[in-house]
Amino acid sequence: MLKFAANLSLLYNEVPFLDRYGEAARDGFRGVECLFPYEEEAGEIRRRLQDHDLQQVLINAPPGVAAAGEKGLASLPGRQTECLDGVKKAIDYALILGVPRIHVMAGIVRDPASRAAAHVQYLETIARAATLLQGAGLDLMIEPINPVDMPGYFLSGQAQAREVLAQVNMDNVRIQMDLYHCQRTEGDVSRHIQSSVGAGLVGHMQIAGAPDRHEPDTGELHYPYLFAQLEALGYDGWIGCEYRPAQGTREGLGWLKRYWDAAPRAMQRNDA
Fold first, then answer.
1. pTM here?
2. CA angle, 230 as apex, 241 and 32 as ends, to 5°?
3. With bands split at pLDDT 50, 70 and 90, how would you rate the model's confidence at 67?
């Protein structure tokens, strides 16, 4: 049975961030993820996790200067030290929260002529960041993000991500495969699942309906088919629910309740 984590940066925006932990637990989630937890004290987040018997399964490293629209620094020449300092901050949070994996964002490279230099920089920075994470017993995630939502983002394709893994060649570097981004960038989602999940390259997944990024029972992707494929491949990692509720978080969870209800009684979420 697949494991779903509530993305608390997008879900439960009806309440303040720290209160979202309790709301997620109330709806049956056992795992949660978020983008950037750094506006809150790590100790307070840990208390919410403990109070509600939740596991924080993913955080992002700081993206650079968010107010300036930066989306990561790993591929940007001259920003490696800043990127690695952010990774160290993420490690500090991860160790307090019990987070096993950290997403390190690649950054925006708008000039096509700069992509070759950005590629060299990206490989070096990811390798250095992965070494830091390895020392803490953590995994590093790289995520292809579609160029419609994030123009110029350096890492956009699934094959590109697989090539980065091959070139970096470190055991704790994995793909964070977001099926929404995969569909928006290139489609052929089930084949990419086979190529990446089937090869053991995926450390975390995320889902949303495409193209509007609402609940996964809306839009172009037929998630029951994709969930069955993941089950057949034996995927046992977390799947982050990183979508924008169309009306309200709780009102839009029918897709998840149907999945849980269809599982054999011994495997249902509340009995697992």
1. 0.95
2. 25
3. confident
Domain ranges of the chain: 35-242
- Among 143, 163, 215, 251, the one annotated catalytic: 143
d(CA 127, CA 75): 12
Q: What is the mean pLDDT of the chain?
A: 96
Based on the residue annotation, tell me whether 215 is a catalytic residue of this protein.
Answer: no
Out of 23, 33, 215, 242, which one is annotated catalytic?
242
Q: Strands, E, within the chain: which ranges?
A: 3-7, 31-33, 55-60, 101-103, 139-142, 173-178, 202-207, 238-241
Report the CATH architecture of 35-242.
Alpha-Beta Barrel (3.20)
What are the start-end ranges of the H helices in 15-101? Answer: 20-26, 42-51, 80-97
pLDDT in tens, 240-266: 999 999 999 999 999 999 999 998 754
- Does the structure show a pLDDT above 80 at 271? no
Does 14 qualify as catalytic in the annotation?
A: no
What's the rounded Cα separation, in Å, for the pair 65 and 69? 7
Residue tagged 């937890």 (tokens): 37
